[in-house]
Amino acid sequence: QVQLVESGGGLVQPGGSLRLSCSASTSINIFNTMGWYRQSTGKERELVATFNNSGRTNYGDSVKGRFTISRDSAKNTVYLQMNSLKAEDTAVYYCSAATYGSYVYWGQGTQVTVSS
Prior knowledge:
The chain is mainly β. It has strands at about 5, 10, 20-25, 30-40, 45-50, 55-60, 65-70, 75-80, 90-100, 105, 110-115.
């Protein structure tokens, strides 16, 4: 059973930065796509950032230029560097991993709150 564990969330002031981590219980090289999604109260889950095994990245329009997704295969970890945070970035952030068979694993989520 694959497990994804997010960490790094918390309370940050507008304009601040956070780095989220997603640690996988297996090699991340077995996944076709990994990434981050978020869900705020009353809204649907939305794409934040993903990458595939070809190295192609994809970002949601609202985070382009501010967030960066990266990975460390040796540590089986995916990161999300979030800069210039805004109040509207407040959400629960979920790590996801999709296999080549299109099965998707999800982490339990980590809360990010941007507030002064």
